[in-house]
Amino acid sequence: xxxxxxxxxxxxxxxxxxxxxxxxxxxxxxxxxxxxxxxxxxxxxxxxxxxxxxxxxxxxxxxxxxxxxxxxxxxxxxxxxxxxxxxxxxxxxxxxxxxxxxxxxxxxxxxxxxxxxxxxxxxxxxxxxxxxxxxxxxxxxxxxxxxxxxxxxxxxxxxxxxxxxxxxxxxxxxxxxxxxxxxxxxxxxxxxxxxxxxxxxxxxxxxxxxxxxxxxxxxxxxxxxxxxxxxxxxxxxxxxxxxxxxxxxxxxxxxxxxxxxxxxxxxxxxxxxxxxxxxxxxxxxxxxxxxxxxxxxxxxxxxxxxxxxxxxxxxxxxxxxxxxxxxxxxxxxxxxxxxxxxxxxxxxxxxxxxxxxxxxxxxxxxxxxxxxxxxxxxxxxxxxxxxxxxxxxxxxxxxxxxxxxxxxxxxxxxxxxxxxxxxxxxxxxxxxxxxxxxxxxxxxxx
Length: 446
What we know:
By secondary structure, the chain is an alpha/beta fold.
């Protein structure tokens, strides 16, 4: 879908405060988890309101290559999955995951549940830089033979022997997707799986999301034992099948919603994200707490969640925040920081240097080009606002860089509606939100 937009794309500023309702795609995190879980159902499952983007298409394609029958209804945004109780039909397959970290980690763990076979897993050059070692080491402990051309990274070839269960140590500092991947397939192990983790991984919102989905669909609560020194032991029961209804609705994506929640900070006014509420399973909904701290009004209605601000000059004099629990949204705040007063300091984001791009460096580079003074460290970025300078933002093939700066470009810098900020490769937003800039333009014209 990269041909939806010119490259570069000149963002059209808003000439008046925003006022409107926006629909964001289904959650990427829930869609890709549910695709795996639906394959472990004993019947067909319909996922409604699912995300249809590059990430989910890679997941669907790989599952089809594994022999699962999956049908997509693009107009309805529904995906039909014929579950097999988790039995993978094909005994060999070559799987290409693009740059989708969830697909890479979840599929690798899923393939390891098969008693035999041969599965090759690879991705883009950027995906080959994203850490897989913690997961690959854990699966080798479980009996899978793995050959990877570059230790701890893709490409990798798996010769699985099922999951034997028992106790393993899991390194999750690079990504908690590694823990989520193991948790989802653990019920298929021969014996209960005991996973030793460190650094508070078991408390991360995306891990809790995985656990809540498991509990919702028939798995017993996992026991979590503190081992001291920041370590914990998670116990997952084996041999209990998933109980998934015929239809599962996917929530709107809270990470995608963060861009539109932030739009009133840039242009004034009110935005409502349809269908998203505080009872969301997604941790990134907590980004609304950041907006409240800055000075926005955030409230819920039957329609969804509304973010508004009337007097932009009353914004707080800077913000310092640990974004470790909601790191996908740090780019949203960093990109719009030039319109805020004071210093913006975002911490706890070291792991984002190993995602679709080095996200700290990417934001620092582009904000400097925009006239801001930046200090960055291994796990933080600090932004001192300066006069904004027109620029073309490089996106590093990272959808979140493109979308976050797309919001800043809505600022009416010249006070006459003239574009001043261009986004290179805007089509990279197809990873999770192909029509992002189309939805943004709808709001501008509303």
